[in-house]
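Milestone M4 deliverable, item 7.
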Amino acid sequence: MKLGEWFDEGVRSGRSGIEGAVSTFRQEDGGAEMLRAARTSLVVASAGVVVGAVAGYLSSKERDGGKRSLAMALTGAALGVAGAMIWQTRGLTGSVLRGAARGVGREHDNIWLEKNPVAYG
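Output delivered:
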């Protein structure tokens, strides 16, 4: 197999995987689930801000721990949002990945049939 053929097959499989993922996302109403997860993650992010600010202030060796508190508060918020989004969308993520795998498998089968035609009869 030449490099160009291998690359073309990879591109076809990749496109098919993306189409499968997008199709599953639409079927599962992923937008609504992402919106619910975003709302939940804001609550967790606010808790992360408080915990990060307190931790930054308490761990500061200077009298003014403002910069460190701010940095830790932003870090806590980012970790809170990321963690909550990952946790809240874990079901959707699994469905989308399965849809992508089905798309790649379907394209892999099509490529195999193009290379190995089956003669019936």
